[in-house]
Amino acid sequence: MPFMPCHWGPATFIGLALFRLFDFPTLLVSCVILDAEPMVVWAFNLDRPLHGVSHSFLVGAPIAILVAAITYLSKSKIRPILADLKLAQDSSFAKMLWSSFVGVYSHIVLDAPLYTDIRPFWPSDRNPLYGPFSDKQIYMTCFVTLALGAALYGLRLLMAGKSSSPQPPDSTADRK
């Protein structure tokens, strides 16, 4: 799948629809972090598969733990940004860890049907997830969920604006 934007669709939609269950920034980072490996392979024209072991459930696990640890340690820097974006959350490490695993594993599940070089169950060389869905179906799902996620965020901003706007004076008090 093209780098990053496609993976943000499902993560944005799920993260906002189930906002209390997920740490939103951890989910967004973890759903794209695996594309660091294909970017390096592509950028340096390395003689190896574009999607290596990072796109496996076994290697994805320590990556998820690392992302959760980094986002947890960065909480104090992330909180003000989230507040400005009307996405304030107070998350525990457990919530960040859960979010990170969902992000990393969703990346693998979205990419595995598309690429023959992915080995989701590495060290096995097989990719039993390859092929049940077309590229078009997966991309469309990602773009539709991104649009739905954007709509949820717009609704969130609208609701935040209504709750913070000054209330008009009570007109019944003026009639007395």
Our estimate of the beta-strand percent is under 5%
Domain module count: 2
Order of helices and strands: HHHHHHHH
Q: What is the subunit organization of this protein?
A: single chain
Structural class: mainly alpha
Shape: globular
Task: Give the % helix.
Answer: 55-70%
In the predicted model, the low-confidence regions spanning at least 5 consecutive residues are none
Over the alpha carbons, how many angstroms does the gyration radius reach? Answer: 20 Å
Layout: helices, strands, pairs:
Blueprint: H1 5-17, H2 24-30, H3 36-43, H4 57-73, H5 75-84, H6 93-111, H7 135-164, H8 171-174
Helix pairs in contact: 1-7, 2-4, 2-6, 4-6
What does this structure look like?
The chain has 176 residues and is an all-alpha fold. It folds into two domains: 21-132, no CATH class; 135-163. The protein has helices spanning 5-17, 24-30, 36-43, 57-73, 75-84, 93-111, 135-164, 171-174. The longest helix has 30 residues, at 135-164.
